[in-house]
Amino acid sequence: GKLLVVPMDGSHWFTMQMVVEKLLPKGHEVVVVVPEVSWQLGKPLNFTVKTYSVSHTQEDLNREFKFFIDSQWKTQQESGVLPLLTSPAQGFFELLFSHCRSLFKDKKLVEYLKQSSFDAVFLDPFDVCGLTVAKYFSLPSVVFSRGIFCHYLEEGSQCPSPPSYVPRPILKLTDTMTFKERVWNLLSYMGEHAFCPSFFKTATDIASEVLQTPVTMTDLFSPVSVWLLRTDFTLELPRPVMPNVIHIGGINCHQRKPVSKEFEAYVNASGEHGIVVFSLGSMVSEIPEKKAMEIAEALGRIPQTLLWRYTGTRPSNLAKNTILVKWLPQNDLLGHPKARAFITHSGSHGIYEGICNGVPMVMMPLFGDQMDNAKRMETRGAGVTLNVLEMTADDLENALKTVINNKSYKENIMRLSSLHKDRPIEPLDLAVFWVEYVMRHKGAPHLRPAAHDLTWYQYHSLDVIGFLLAIVLTVVFIVYKSCAYGCRKCFGGKGRVKKSHKSKTH
Amino acid sequence: GRLLVVPMDGSHWFTMQMIVEKLSHRGHEVVVVIPEVSWHMGKSLNFTVKLLLVLNTLEDLNYHFKFFAHNQWKTQEVGMFSLLKHSGKGFFELLFSHCRSLFKDKKLVEYLKQSSFDAVFLDPFDVCGLILAKYFSLPSVVFSGGIFCHYLDEGAQCPSPPSYVPRILSKFTDTMTFKERVWNHLSYMKERAFCPYFFKTAVEIASEVLQTPVTMRDLFSPVSIWMFRTDFVLEFPRPMMPNMVYIGGINCHQGKPLSKEFEAYVNASGEHGIVVFSLGSMVSEIPEKKAMEIAEALGRIPQTLLWRYTGTRPSNLAKNTILVKWLPQNDLLGHPKARAFITHSGSHGIYEGICNGVPMVMMPLFGDQMDNAKRMETRGAGVTLNVLEMTADDLENALKTVINNKSYKENIMRLSSLHKDRPIEPLDLAVFWVEYVMRHKGAPHLRPAAHDLTWYQYHSLDVIGFLLAIVLTVVFIVYKSCAYGCRKCFGGKGRVKKSHKSKTH
B238 — contact with chain A (CB < 8 Å)? Predict the structure, then answer.
């Protein structure tokens, strides 16, 4: 079949690419649409890539993202989705959303896509463009994402999430909440309904322009055939799901390969203390100098060998046990029996590599879902979370010593690891299956709940409850009135007599 | 590992047995506890079977079920309540009583205690498996077609908005008119009100055994994994929980070649092909008048009829109808000459029909059969008949419709291809999850935190109340201070006037 892929830049693409590459040998014709300016999407690929020109340069992209990241080291975002609106990320998102306008300006590309008659669209909904493309060409779509911002998973898949035990994203809450936390959770849920449409305004404006009819985010999300979520219930908290929501967490977790000679040497030299792997992900290139110095100091105080993936300036106080590298084979190092701990920004890829290889974690979440990931691992006793803004060298040192020396962390992460890897089918195969399923059957209408066709008050049966209440009240009213009437008949005679009597005496 | 199996009699056991046999093959030690009196479970099995002395005889069991089944030919009972309250009551009481017998057998209980099982694999129909699991504090895997009443909602904390999820046995679809939604909502409320009463005997036995008062919810809520013999080709899409597994079509195999006897029948049918007719293993006898009408209708179509029927032979049986005591249903349906399938629409039959892509004429009698029939009809893959009201003409027309109208064949073929397109075979999936629970001693990480909330917490009523209270307080204060402010500004004159007035008085 023919598959159109609309990916998202950055680390999102790593796992999506795995699925796309697995689809190729099965004989599918794959066309990937990417902006000409990007971090990861431009790399040579062995399938058809269609680029479209965008109005900004690579520098613009880097600058906006750096502005956002740098701000995370200064003031951590308040928890919740609301601050997103005023956050330094806004500029970055506007840039992303604008891609879609560029795509649809490229008439030749649009014409080509129209002519190609694809079976389905495989998309990352992060920049919304994939959803717009799917709607524009009326193609069935498969969404691939870690999670969905705001309440659009609930609206788009009609999946219930009672705010009493399902924490809203980016709130750092667990599934067991105090009364106060439940109040915040509900408020944040209401806040999402109120403010998210304005956060996605640029995206919906572009979509409305392209589709030539006013659309909302719900309109864009609701035709989705299958949702592939890069998570599972060892990381995520159990909650209601829908039949077309498939969890494929750990898709990036492979059998480890032997490490290269360079790293093998480092690992062997570490002796009985073993190694600690340290990476803040591909998106964070620079840490503010003061912070970097503190981190370097803490790392120097533990006996393990540190392998730190860092592309910024070398901190001057770097200790001997710390080796700075531009890149490291993260999964292979974590899979090494000598790996003692993993310092991570707790992006979902890193977290799953940690779970998969059973390495306890020290987590320094910076933005987005990282806070939630860290909170969930901490709740399960498999790691320690640090606040990057407030942490001192002592904090980091203590956290590292705790996860390395306290046996319970290792035990917990090993238990999670065995639960995670115990599954009837590999996540990658599952993802490939569902993409092909949607291509084969031109969507999955039989998995689409009838709830999509109900209004909100119908969905919550408010009309039915109102109707039943009206009946009950009417019956009560009639019974009351007839009783009153009956009473008047029985005892009223005297009353009337008295009254008339009174009026007479007047 | 060691697995305790508490099955339910009747057709329920057929598919459960497939899973248990596969588990046994994989080297698990399996102990099955069954009452010594049963229809199907006594058959020779290649795993340990613990028989259980019960008070009733096979005649009692047959009597009660027959009473129930016969009643279905007289007055159709729609909805949960008529089924539970009326003719089915005696049968259910008998089933529930098995559990008391089980726990009276001290030797058996002691043996089970000593065995230290890893998990219980149970059919919740007669509730006894749930009581056993709770009594021995073992993680449990439930195997069922569907859960009666609202106990799935409560036991799994699975939301089922009554606005588009039809209640069980209601015969509604997922697209309901306002009137239907009102009825659906009412039956949801009725379940909450009356189901505890229906399960009273079972709950009493449980309270006795566990020596503490329990409710059905207490029995259902520790369940680790819920396995349902359905999938979303038959069932309407609805919210589910992470610990629910759908294994519909587990009984659907590749058709085997037919025996000589049946091969001969099929070959003799010529271009018209055959129609398979079976009302399941539980219905042995059809009232004579009904049987005559059916036989008449069957005589009017050109196909060869293969009718599995153990009752008296109707006198007007036509030449094209062959009465057999048993037939290889799946193999016959899988034969290219199969044109239609007349079924009572039990879930096994329905899935064999879907699997082999044979359009159906459905005569639902009781339980989930009504719902199954409704679902297939909605999808345009069959025609439902009301067994009480149908005439020979109705049956004839229904048969001719599904055989001659191409759309029925197309729809069932589409459903068949959707059904068979799955990442893993249902039998393997079922085996995986039973083993999973055995390996990990349950699945606590799949248990939603909703179990620990009260109903008003779950619906956030306390939070909403609190927020409303704040809003009202603020409104009240603002109003009062405005009022005060107004009085300050404009009130001076007023008071002056007043005092003036009082002076003049």
Answer: yes
Q: Of A213-222, A295-304, B46-55, give the lowest mean pLDDT range.
A: B46-55
- Cβ atoms within 10 Å, residue B440: 19
Question: For A379-419, where are the E strands, in sequence order?
Answer: 383-385
Measured between alpha carbons, how far apart are the two ends of chain A, in Å?
99
Contact B346/B280 with Cβ under 8 angstroms? Answer: yes
Q: Check B236 against A159: CB less than 8 A apart.
A: no
pLDDT tens digits, A368-421:
788 889 999 999 999 999 988 888 999 999 999 999 999 999 999 999 999 999
What distance, in Å, lies between the first and last C-alpha atoms of chain B?
Answer: 100
What pTM does this model have? 0.90
Length of chain A: 506
Q: What is the DSSP string of A68-103?
A: HHHHHHHSPPPSSSGGGGTSTTHHHHHHHHHHHHHH
pLDDT digits (tens, 9 = 90+) for B280-327: 877 778 888 888 999 999 999 999 999 998 888 888 888 899 998 888
Rounded Cα gap, residues B427 and B16, in angstroms: 10
Contact of A501 with chain B, judged by CB distance below 8 Å, is answered with no
Contact A242, A156 (CB under 8 A): no
The type of residue at A125 is P
Q: How far apart are CA B236 and CA B357, in angstroms?
A: 19
Closest CB to B242 among A183, A241, A437: A241
Closest residue in A to B457 (Cα–Cα) = A164
A2-6 and A226-229 as β-strands: parallel, antiparallel, unpaired? unpaired
Q: Residue B411 is encoded by which pair of tokens?
A: 């729809």
Report d(CA B46, CA A380) in Å as an integer: 42
Q: Does A289 touch chain B (CB under 8 A)?
A: no
Residues sharing a CB contact under 8 Å with residue B52, sequence separation 6 or more, in sequence order: B33, B34, B35, B36, B98, B101, B102, B105, B108
How far apart, in Å, are the Cα atoms of B46 and each of B22, B35, B116?
11, 17, 21
DSSP lists the bridge partners of residue B140 as: B120
Judge residue A256's burial from the number of C-beta atoms within 10 Å of its C-beta, 0-12 exposed, 13-18 middle, 19 or more buried: middle
What residues contact residue B69 under an 8 Å CB cut-off, 6+ apart? B282, B283, B365, B366
Query: Which residues does chain A have within 8 Å of residue B243's beta carbon, measured at their own beta carbons?
Result: 238
Contact status, residue A22 vs residue A5, Cβ threshold 8 Å: no
Q: Which residue has the tokens 């205690």?
A: B113
| Backbone φ, ψ for residue A257 (5° rounding) | -95, 160
Contact B275, B339 (CB under 8 A): yes
Enter the tokens of residue B183.
């009825």
* Shortest CA gap B154–chain A (Å): 13
DSSP per position, B418-477: HHH--SS-HHHHHHHHHHHHHHHTS-GGGS-GGGGS-HHHHTTHHHHHHHHHHHHHHHHH
Residue A305 near residue A274, CB atoms below 8 Å: yes
The Cα A216–Cα A213 span in angstroms is 10
Phi-psi region of A408 (alpha: psi -120 to 50; beta: other; left: phi over 0): alpha
Q: How far is CA B85 from CA B79, B188, B205, B214, in A?
A: 11, 16, 19, 22
Which of A165, A449, A459 lies nearest to residue B453, judging by beta carbons? A165
Which residues on neighbouring strands pair with residue B341, listed in sequence order? B276, B360
Q: What is the rounded distance in angstroms from the CA atom of residue B192 to the CA atom of residue B249?
A: 31
Instruction: For residue B171, give the nearest of B359, B13, B362, B8 by alpha carbon.
Output: B362
Is A238's CB within 8 Å of B243's CB? yes
Determine whether the interchain pair A160/B159 forms a contact, defined as Cβ–Cβ distance below 8 Å: yes
Three state DSSP letters for A133-162:
HHHHCCCCEEEEECCCCCCHHHHHHCCCCC
Q: How many beta carbons lie within 10 A of that of residue B394, not counting itself?
A: 16
